[in-house]
Amino acid sequence: MSNQSTSPQPTLQAGAELHGFKVLRVQVFPEIRVTAYEIEHKKTGAKVLHLHSFDRENLYAIGFRTPPTDSTGVPHILEHSVLAGSEKYPLKDVFKELMRSTLQTFINAFTYPDKTVYPVASQIKTDFFNLARVYTDLVLHPRLLKETFLQEGHHLELSVPDDLSSDLIISGIVYNEMKGAYSSPDSLMYKAIQENLYPDSVYAFDSGGDPDVIPALTYEQFCEFHRAYYSPTNARFFIYGDITTEEHLAFLSEMLSGFDRVNIDSSIRSQKRLTVPLSIRNNYPVGKDEPIERKTMVNVAWMMSENTDHETSLILEIIAALLVGSAASPLRKALIDSGLGEDLTPISGIEADLKQLMFCAGLRNTQSSDAQKIEQLIFDTIKNVVKNGFDKELIEGVLHQVEIHGKEIIRSSYPYGILLMGNVFQTWLYDGDPLIGLDFPKIIESIRQRWAADLQIFQKMTKKWLLDNPHRILAIMEPDPDFNEKKEKIHRDKMAKLKASLTKSNLAEINTQAAELKKFQSEPDSPQDAATIPKLKLEDIPRSVETIPSQNSLIGEVTALEHDIFTNGIAYVDLAFDTAHVPEELQPYLPLMGKIITGMGAAGFTYEEMAKRIALKMGGFGYDLATGFSADAGRSWQKMAFSFSALYRNLPEATNIVSDVICAGDLSAYARMRDLISERKNNLQSAIVPSGHIFAKMAAGAALSLPAYRDEQWHGRTQLKFVQKTANDFELSKQKLREKLEELRKILFNKENLTINITAEAKGLKIVEENILQLLGMLPASVPVHTETKPTLAPVYAGISIPAQVSYVACVLQAPAYINPASALLMISAKELSNNYLYKHIRVQGGAYGGMSSFDSTLGLFSFISYRDPHIVETLRVFKDAQDFYSKNEISSEEMKKAIISTIGMLDKPLDPAGRGHVALIRSFAGINDDMRQQFRDNVLSATPQMLKNTLADYFSRAAKSAAVAVYSAPEKLSEANTRLEEKLRIENIFET
Ligand SMILES: [Zn+2]
After folding, report:
1. What is the pLDDT of residue 993?
2. Which band of pLDDT confidence, cut at 50, 70 and 90, is reported for residue 784?
3. Which end of the chain has fewer surrounding CB within 10 Å, N or C?
4. Residue 291: its pLDDT value, please?
5. Domains in the chain, ordered, with CATH?
6. Cα-to-centroid distance, 121 and ligand 1 (Å)
7. Closest Cα to residue 271, out of 228, 234, 315, 302?
8. What is residue 555's predicted lDDT score, i.e. its pLDDT?
């Protein structure tokens, strides 16, 4: 991220020619601080778009149009296969090697219904060009070995190797991946709608691959698909960041040399408009013993306008947000309040990554017999909107959200460049203007003008594209307990028939081929091949830490921390209240209180009115609970922060809203309170299976430190059990609950307890200061002092039973303080363990989806964890063996270098402005200053294999005594593990019965 507030000066003009390229257009976008160059490669016709900015996180992405003509999944299998090595880089898994040996900030590959995209990003120029060079070679010159096709796509093998009488089975990575996708209710629902709504287009096929069709793909077709579509002529290069256009063109001209223009028509054809609405009924799998009442999903989906008609697309996106986007949206409210189902289907809303947009709305956990009623309700609600119009404030709120999110610099789990890339491809892929979506102030202005000229514009468009649009589908998705069994039987019969048609020598050949493939997979890359990947030198890594501008100040006697950072006119404010003195009995109520007071009415406004006010004046508003040790671990801290963002012009009203919530939150609307508690319960419950490893780590960590104990109490299974009980007992104890929340509010919300954190440009900081003073005026000065309470920490050796067929295993040790010299080495060892020992023993040999380690001085934990693991006892053994291994063996200096590079990559993870302000606040709570951070970095950079071994031998021998263990798994797996474990797991059930 950069502090530059302008776009770079154009360095090339339209019409200019350079390195074999022609500049077609140059356009400056001041609002997003980008200068855009639309360029074409003269010889091949390759299209290049460079968005030049001052951001040093450069992004490079190669995209191809890859329209499928069947559901063999050839685009997806190819996406996997090209990353498995090229002529120049003949390694088995180049992708994994790049991941662990570079300072990449993003590396990935995506298969869409009509395109395939390969993005990489880095903040270091040498590293960036290394990554771009290897990635380009992989896609344009892949080896595409037969073995790779068999491994990634599909191949036959005998279920018992060498036993010709055993069953014939199909295997393959994409084949198995798609078998997983085809048992997920949500993907089946989406697939059924897309295929039927676009029956004559490429969207009628599954680019990911249908497991029933994948085996029909031949190696020749696979190679042919690459030859047809992976040419520079069919490529779109999207580039973003601070490296100059000239340098990119010099690089690309080298990459494209030797290629000629090819004859290819890859254009995506439009779906012809249907004149009669359709209705479909499909099934999805549920567990054999699961009740099937109220498990149906009902959706209505429409095909709407062409994506290239950008203004219409944007109006339709606004209409979608108006109808279902917020708690105040009429269609969302009508569906939920009807009681016909529990909540909206996850695909409700707009889908803009298709040539013609799709809008969908529906309910889940409903029943098939109510499908017509739901359809009727959807149409009645839309009819009503068309007749009476949308609430004006709701429209203003959605326009404001488009404006603020267009301006905002966001860098969450992916680079800012990826966000812009998504925007560009929505028109570029279909031969529309790639830059049209970037100029949002102009678009918003033109929509505002159309609205001013015709107050009924949104109603009219709703009528045209939804109410009067016959190109739509009513899709009913019903649960079927026999779904998997039926599918499997058909498959088994097919395979038996195939086997019967084969001779003994055919089978022997299949067996030999499968054995050869196994042999190919297990052979390591030769050192010469491994050496082909360009290596980053340790000298290429920045030596000094990056600092975050921070100024301590006082606002009306309250401690404040201010960060003068370029935020593009948006202020980010955190109000952090100390929770250390909250009595033990009230601690579990903290997260619930955050959820309830930010979701209910306040100061005479209903919750719908509050939702509208927030959409109108804020970018976001939420709460968070955080805790940790000080730098020397001599003390701990814990805070509850309310965070919001707003455009400078909206700061007065935004501060009023926060002040209403904190000082005048309304806790009397019990019905709304109950909905919010159920929502929190459902969210926590559904988080367990996808992130069981995090829950297991929290459960074990709670034994080892006060911060880790609080973390579990607020975010782990203890919190889930608490919320379940609160939801179950709600009717009986709502009065008591309200009293507790009132009491908590009194203890928490006062000036003495508060730290203010502001991130904005100087001008914005001043406006926040002025407005926050008013809020402070409403807060009491101090409160009756409660003494700090400390729970007793108890050893944990827990087995937590959940409905899952896989296990999540965590073993956690106490970790030293941030300033302890051992900490840098422990952080390196966590990376080394994750990339090497645990990867090999838990994933490759153990068959788990993942095995990893982490070091966290904030909570004081060093963890070993496994993810979607078929084992428990063996995994705990591997965790122990790993400690032995690193205590006795030195790793090679090459491995050490990779571990250091990936540790630095983690320390240097780019942050957006809000993230930088937040990190600075957390550091100030812990008392971590830049000298300490520099010392830590120096310790990482100067680490040697010998130091690592000595530190680990000493650390593991002492810390192992404090080890805590927690396993999330199915009850029968936990009991089975206990028959073999010396120290037994104490089994508990997570769901209230
Ligand atoms: Zn895949």
Report:
1. 44
2. low
3. C
4. 79
5. 16-268+505-532 (3.30.830.10), 278-412+432-479 (3.30.830.10), 797-989 (3.30.830.10)
6. 20
7. 302
8. 95
Strand partners, 25: 38
Which member of 38, 57, 79, 478 is catalytic? 79
- Cα of 183 vs centre of ligand 1, distance in Å, is 15
Please pick, among 97, 152, 562, 832, the residue that the annotation labels catalytic. 152
Candidates 628, 451, 648; CA nearest to 569 is: 648
Amino acid at 901: I
Is 341 within 8 Å of 483 (Cβ atoms)?
Answer: no
Place of tokens 């085809």: 182
How far is ligand 1, taken at its centre, from the CA of residue 136, in Å? 19
End-to-end, the C-alpha distance of the chain in Å comes to: 49
Helix (H, G, I), strand (E, B) or coil at 22: strand
SS3 state of residue 359 = strand
Read off the pLDDT of residues 638-648 as tens digits, 9 standing for 90 and up. Answer: 999 999 999 99
User: How high is the pLDDT of residue 992?
Assistant: 55
> Alpha carbon 204 to chain centroid distance?
27
Q: How far is the CA of 844 from the centre of ligand 1 (A)?
A: 18
The C-alpha atoms of residue 903 and residue 937 are separated, in whole angstroms, by: 10
Euclidean distance between CA atoms 766 and 760, whole angstroms: 9
Q: How much distance in Å is there from the Cα of 747 to the middle of ligand 1?
A: 51
Examine the pLDDT at 558 and tell me if it is beyond 90. Answer: yes
The answer on pLDDT for 503 being more than 70 is yes
699 C-alpha to ligand 1 centroid (Å): 32
Give the burial string for 88-102 (b: 16+ CB within 10 Å, else e): ebbbbebbebbebbb
Q: Give the integer Cα–Cα distance in Å for 676 and 680.
A: 6
Single-letter amino acid code for the residue at 888? K
- Residue 442 CA to ligand 1 center (angstroms) comes to 38
* CA gap 665, 659 in Å, rounded: 9
Say whether pLDDT at 418 is over 90: yes
Cα angle 867, 870, 872; round to 5: 80
Strand 472-480 relative to strand 278-285, pairing: parallel
Cα of 839 to ligand 1 centre, how many Å?
19
Q: Mind listing the pLDDT tens digit for each residue in 8-30?
A: 999 999 999 999 999 999 999 99
Contacts of 523 (CB under 8 A, 6+ apart): none
For the chain, give the number of residues: 993
Q: What residue type is assigned to position 208 of the chain? A: G
For residue 387, give every residue at least 6 positions away whose Cβ sits within 8 Å of its Cβ, in sequence order, or none: 459
Q: Where are the alpha helices (DSSP H) in 555-669?
A: 589-599, 607-617, 651-664
Whether the pLDDT of residue 668 is over 90: the answer is yes
pLDDT of residue 802: 84
Query: Known catalytic residue: 79?
Result: yes
Rg (CA), the chain: 29
How far, in Å, from the CA of 404 to the mean position of ligand 1? 34
Q: How far apart are the C-alpha atoms of 533 and 91, rounded to whole Å?
A: 9
Q: Which of 207-216, 476-485, 811-820, 851-860 has the least mean pLDDT? A: 476-485
> Is the per-residue pLDDT at 651 higher than 80?
yes
CA 299 / ligand 1 centre spacing (Å): 27
Q: Which of 158, 799, 804 is nearest to 515 (CA)?
A: 158
User: CA 133, CA 821: separation in Å to the nearest integer?
Assistant: 38
Q: Is the pLDDT of residue 991 over 80?
A: no
Handedness of CA 503, 509, 513, 518 (dihedral sign): positive
Token pair listed for 665: 């939150």
For ligand 1, the distance from its centroid to the CA atom of residue 117, given in whole angstroms, is 13
Q: For residue 320, what are the CA distances in angstroms to 299, 325, 422, 458?
A: 15, 7, 19, 11
